[in-house]
Structures are given as C-alpha cells and as structure tokens.
Target: Putative pre-mrna-splicing factor atp-dependent rna helicase dhx15-like protein
Amino acid sequence: TAVAARGPAKLCSVGEDGRLCQLTPGRPEPVRVIDGANSGCPTCLSYVRQEHVIVGNLAGHLQLWDLASPDKRPAQDLAWTGQQVTCLAQHQTQGHLVACGAASGQLSLWDLRQTRLATVTLAAPTQGALADMVFHPEGSLLFCAHDGSLLRWATPGPPRGEVEMDALVRPPGSPLNSLDLQGPLVAAGTDSETLLLLSQR
Model:
C-alpha cells in the first residue's frame, strides 16, 4: 500500500494486511516485520524520525511506530474521528508537525509532541478526496485532490481569520494522485498517466 525511505539505507513498507516491514536496500529479507500492525486498512506511511514511522489508515488513525523497540504496539495512536486518512506529510524543518488529508477533503495538522487532538482541522477547497501532499522546505504545504486540483497553503498553522490557499491547478481535470517537489519544480501525476510539471517561481 505504501513505502517510505529515510536516506539511502532505510526503507519501510506497509500492506493492506497491516504488515509493517523494515527493509534494507540490497538485502532480500526484512530487517523486522510487525504482523497485524495496522488493522484499519493502511493508506500512507512516512518516516518522522530516524527509527520512527507514522502510518495513516481508513479507520482514521495515525499510528507512530518505533522500529527500534521490541514492542508490537504503536508508541502513539492518534484518532481523527469520522475521517479516513488518505495521505500525510512531515514538515521538513519542524519534524514534530505532520499534515494529513482525508477522503472527505478535510485537512488537519498534528503536533506529535501533543497527545490526542489535531492542532488544526479544516475543509480544503476541493470537491474530492485529498490524494497526496508534501511540505516545501520553506514551510508551505502543497496538496492535490481527486477533483484535479493542486493547492498551496502558504502558512500552515492555526488560522487567524480566513484561510487563504493558492490554486496551482484548478479543476475540472484528470484526478491527481501523486505529488513530489524538487526545488522550485512541482510534479503531479494523474489518473490518465500524464505528468504535470509546474514551477513555483
């Protein structure tokens, strides 16, 4: 279902069966396997620390796993009640901040130093599920949706008044399903097997 990397030597994967695997490139067998780590149909995965990964699932849970610990329970379990988590991203300079998107089009920010509640929850201006997201090194959050929109939230955080977001791609269009960032270039993949390349300059 999802794969995440941390540098050149650490990989982690999670499948629909909830099996969480820690991998090393060039080594055929997993370094560690946690069977049944996630029973809520996992959808997304990201490293948030050197030995910690966070997994989002359709049951609305964000589970933080310590891969260096022998414990077979998550180190932290956050519940986004009533939502199906479809994507997540870690802030590049403030590693305790994680953004999540949902099938309903909701968007949330979580502070992993806190315990239970999202710092911010709001409805993204889209007509479909959020598909992927990534933080820019300068702090803005880019995310795409199944309605074909690609949006940028310049200052993610608790809103002071109306939240403004810039539309880099407007619907209607082919549903967007993946997103990546390299310098000023933004790459977005579509369900029609095309690749959109945009410059933020």
The CA atoms of residues 47 and 53 lie 4 Å apart. The chain is about 0% helix and 50% strand. The radius of gyration is 16 Å.
